[in-house]
Structures are given as structure tokens and as C-alpha cells.
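Exercise 7.
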Amino acid sequence: MYIGLMVAEAPKVEQERTLVTWRELGRPFKKFNLEAMAVPAVIAILVGVILLVAGEWMLIIVVAALVFAVYMWSTVQPEEVEYLLSNKGLRMFGRLYEWSVMTRWWVEDKWGGRYVAIESWAVPMGKLYVPIEVKKEKEILEVMEKYLIKEKPMDTTMDKMGKWVTEKFPMQAGK
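Solution. The predicted structure, written as C-alpha cells, is:
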């Protein structure tokens, strides 16, 4: 009796090819002046006084840390990052996000810049915001259309509530 071994062909491996590359800031950024920080500072002081009366020392430290983080995020410009779209996915911050972990994308205007918002289950908040370089916008969008569905989701209840709060209670003085 003869038992032959079946030799399967090795799957073809496609090497990564760069399709578009550009450099932009690492996160959405809009520089605030000290006047714009007045409202958040007053809110933090009021919350701090209430927590001080209640004797919640740890929460006071948390509020102070949040105030410091907001101040730093709004005054220190982020570093410039190289973004790369390839046949395998999106590379940014030295990490590859494969096309298979992304579901859909759309374009958003935020803080004076244009961003590609990408839904992905591989990131903690479920969305990647990728800044678009104006000169390469057409190329970037063509590659995105080739690999993912372009579809903006409907606003959730949280999105609607957030928009309402920012319209009714602007954080910047003078609005």
C-alpha cells in the first residue's frame, strides 16, 4: 500500500508596496490663547472648591491633572508624523493598521484641517483620525476608495448631545 504525500503549493506572498506617503501633524491641533482657557479654568476651580469642601483630595488631583493635560494639548504643537498608505494598509506612528481591521471611512473637517476618519475595531476608541495633506488629498482619497467603503455613519445620541452642549455652552470666551 502506497501513501503519497500531497505537496501543496506555497501561497503567493505579496510584498508591501507604498502607494501614497505624506507628513502631517500627529493629532488634530488648534492653538488656544490664554483667553480661550478662561472658561475651562473657571469650571475647574469651581469643581475643585466643591471637592475641597467635600474632602475629596484624590479627585482634586485628578481635576488638576486634567486641567494640565488640556493646557498642554492646546499649547504644545504635536510632532510631525509620516503617514503611509500601502497595499497592506495604513502605517502611522510606526504601526501597520491592516485593511482587514478597518470597516469604513469618511472625510471630516475639524479645527481648520481635513481628516480621514476610519472606523476600526483595532483601536481603543474605534476611530482613527488621519490628517490629509492638501497637495496629496486626491491621491489619498483614491487609495482609500480602492480598499474601503466610503460611508459616514449616522450621528449617535452621544454625538448629538456633544454637539448640542458645544453649541449652547461654548468653552471659548467671546462666542
